[in-house]
TrEMBL record:
Domain Ionotropic receptor 75a N-terminal: 22-201
Lineage: Eukaryota, Metazoa, Ecdysozoa, Arthropoda, Hexapoda
Top-level taxon of the source organism: Eukaryota
UniProt-listed InterPro entries: Insect_Ionotropic_Sensory_Rcpt, IR75A_N
Protein name: Ionotropic receptor 75a N-terminal domain-containing protein
Organism: Cyphomyrmex costatus
Length: 724
């Protein structure tokens, strides 16, 4: 009877203990607000069944395995949500250390997992743990039985790899009547933020540190030269992180980059776990995610090709038409045509000497070009028309000139698009600053980068990389594109360029990217760095450090107008227009000369052939008799006493008295009677008895041709100084 009673009490106690364990599991994971629970129990079917029932009732999917069974732990604990894991280490003859080893190897002590361990003794429970993977965010609790309740302890380690110690803190308790009571309600990061001076290793690439300056002094110094600004920026931010969490940094300097290293020496250092953090901001790429973890994108970096956009490097044929819009030109042409027509009509009504459309066109164009015009009439109507044309031409001329000046002063630079395609087709000479990441950027799979890469590879190896000083001089000369980090080249440009050159500076980015701070894949400082950098970003310290470490961009005064000489490209359309006009003039002159010379030669031959037979018999005897009777006696008498005085008087009197009457009468009678039939097609006699050709051109061979005897005397008289 007593034996049976004892067995009954033992079974009742076991059932009660099982029930309490299942309730603790349910209450704890309900408090943690997980959606899935995985357990490693001692293999009790009744206990496992009760635990699964309680967890399922509160909406949690559950899976329970014996602690010593051979299962795939990574696959069993794989999750993309928060998971609760409980392990009963009280099981006899079962080794549970493999579970903790797998958890450490696969980083299962982060935000995604909430661990609950059942033990009998605190020291024994701690000895069975593998805390190499513990960090500040580890959620790991040990449940130990007490006389009347159960006690919960919070267990964590900041970083065992850097001599961190295991910390055990009382978390709360569980009572059957009161349930779960948690005393540490603050967030894990806030209550564990003191790292107690733990030493973390931080690596970075530093290329320009002087030998006599220590690394820490160089990174913290405020040198006027903008060199190694990226590691200085990263070190400053990580220093703020270290101050927030009370740990120190052991700095590692990397001063070389192997030629065939595509990801950089910093990534290799982090992958080998030689450093916890990287204070050198590196470009975010997909390939690097297998080497390290990005903490936070910090620096919006850019590397670019820089060159000057020099205006008017190409001839613009239509620049002479640019000051006026198309409708304005149409209006001006229409007004000019109407003006020419009206002026021609006015000149015709006023009986001007020339009233054709050609002279009207010439007058109008001359007025528009401010070149003056001939006066063809003294009437008021024509003068008013000419004044109106002058005013109209003056206004058009001034508006055109003002538009030309304004357009040239305010014409924006036609800068190249920010495209590697445009740069590749520009046929400019190119070079780059020799830095550690240029070849890495060219390996980017982006289409424009891969399109540009053959153009870069076509440059000889000896001319690809030059110093910043040589690159600035090449940009200054023009027609040269130089690739550099703007923070390195901006100070040199600001010193070497004037304001106009700075405004002409054009940038084509090779690869716009973000620089981020990195940690190794298993870093225990990753989460705290992310939290601290987020606070630094929101507080404005990051922006301040970017401005502090970045070089100032050379200032371009956009409101200032730069006056430069007119280049040959701008003047070429005007010169070509002048040359075209000269060529047209020569062609027209040649045509006119050939036509007029042929026509005049033919007309002259016709006139002389008609005049000679009819006038020789009449004009020649009378002229000879008159000259002999009048001129010879007078010449003989006047030459001897006073030749100079009497020649002029006698010749004038005798010529006027004797020749005028005879020549005029004889020529008029003979021309009218004998030459009317022959000369009528080509010659007309006006009211003033002037012989005129039909085309208003005086005959090339004058009447001297038919007076050979008198021509010499006429020439001597008319060319003498006294007569003149």
């Amino acid at each position: 009877m007593c034996l049976m009673y004892r067995i009954f009490l033992l079974q009742t106690f076991i059932i009660v203990v099982y029930a309490q364990t299942s309730q603790i599991i349910r209450d704890y994971f309900v408090y943690k607000n997980v959606t899935r629970v995985v357990g490693f129990s001692c293999g009790g079917v009744n206990e496992d069944f009760l635990t699964m029932k309680l967890l399922t009732d509160v909406g949690m999917s559950t899976a329970i395995k014996p602690a010593g069974s051979q299962i795939d732990i990574p696959r069993y604990l794989d999750t993309d949500r928060t998971m609760g894991v409980f392990v009963d280490i009280r099981c006899p003859n079962q080794n549970v250390s493999g579970i903790f080893d797998e958890g450490t190897a696969h980083r299962m002590y982060d935000y995604s997992y909430a661990w609950l361990i059942f033990g009998n003794n605190l020291n024994d429970s701690l000895q069975s743990l593998n805390d190499s993977g513990f960090s500040i965010v580890t959620d790991f609790a040990i449940l130990l039985p007490n006389d009347t309740n159960y006690v919960l302890y919070d267990v964590y380690n900041h970083c065992k790899m850097r001599d961190g110690v295991l910390n055990v803190t009382w978390l709360g308790n569980w009572k059957e009547n009161e349930g779960l009571m948690i005393n540490l309600t603050d967030s894990r990061v806030n209550r564990r933020r003191d790292y107690h001076g733990l030493r973390a290793k931080a690596a970075g690439i530093v290329l320009h540190r002087p030998e006599h300056v220590s690394l820490i002094d160089y990174l913290e110094g405020d040198s006027l030269e903008v060199m190694d600004n990226w590691p200085k920026f990263g070190h400053t931010l990580l220093s703020h992180v270290a101050n927030m969490f009370n740990f120190t940094m052991e700095l590692i300097e990397i001063d070389h980059w192997e030629k065939n290293d595509s990801n950089g020496p910093l990534m290799g250092t982090l992958k080998r776990d030689d450093a916890d953090l990287g204070y050198y901001p590196s470009i975010l790429t997909i390939e690097r995610y297998g080497y390290a973890r990005v903490i936070f994108p910090q620096w919006p970096t850019r590397t670019c090709f820089m060159f000057r956009t020099i205006p008017a490097t190409k001839m613009k044929p239509w620049i002479i038409l640019k000051p006026f819009a198309a409708d304005t030109w149409y209006s001006i042409i229409l007004i000019v045509v109407i003006t020419i027509f009206i002026l021609s009509c006015i000149l015709k009504l006023e009986r001007a000497d020339d009233y054709g459309c050609s002279i009207s066109t010439l007058i109008t164009v001359a007025a528009l070009c401010q070149q003056g015009f001939p006066s063809l009439s003294n009437q008021s109507a024509s003068r008013i028309a000419l004044i109106q044309i002058t005013v109209f031409g003056l206004l058009v001329y001034n508006y055109y000139g003002a538009a030309i000046v304004s357009a040239r002063l305010n014409e924006p630079l036609q800068k190249m698009n920010d495209s590697l395609y445009s740069l590749a087709h520009s046929k400019m000479h190119m070079a780059a600053e020799k830095n550690v990441f240029f070849n890495f950027l060219l390996r980017n799979p982006r289409p424009d980068v891969q399109y540009f890469r053959p153009f870069w590879n076509a440059i000889p190896e000896s001319k690809r990389f030059i110093s910043i000083e040589e690159g600035v001089e090449g940009i200054k000369r023009g027609g040269f594109a130089y690739h550099a980090d703007p923070d390195d080249i901006y100070p040199s440009i600001e010193l070497a360029f004037d304001k106009q050159m700075i405004c002409q500076l054009t940038e084509v980015h090779l690869l716009k990217s973000e620089l981020g701070l990195w940690s190794n894949l298993k870093s225990h400082f990753h989460e705290i760095s992310k939290i601290a950098l987020l606070k630094i970003n929101t507080s404005g310290l990051r922006r301040r450090e970017i401005r502090r470490r970045s070089a100032r961009k050379p200032y371009c005064p956009s409101d200032e107008i730069f006056v430069s000489s007119v280049t040959i490209y701008e003047a070429a359309p005007i010169l070509f227009l002048l040359l075209f006009g000269m060529i047209i003039s020569l062609i027209v002159f040649g045509i006119e000369y050939f036509v007029f010379y042929t026509m005049n030669s033919k007309r002259t031959s016709d006139i002389t052939s008609n005049i000679k037979p009819s006038t020789k018999l009449i004009i020649k005897p009378s002229i000879k008799s008159d000259i002999k009777l009048g001129i010879k006696p007078n010449i003989k008498q006047s030459i001897k006493p006073n030749m100079k005085k009497n020649i002029k008087l006698n010749i004038k009197k005798d010529i006027k008295t004797n020749m005028e009457k005879d020549i005029k009468l004889n020529i008029k009678k003979d021309i009218k009677t004998n030459m009317e039939k022959d000369i009528k097609p080509d010659i007309k006699i006006d009211k003033k008895s002037k012989i005129l050709l039909k085309d208003k051109v005086p005959p090339k061979n004058n009447i001297i041709l038919v007076l050979p005897e008198a021509s010499n005397i006429f020439q001597q008289v008319l060319m003498s100084k006294r007569y003149q």
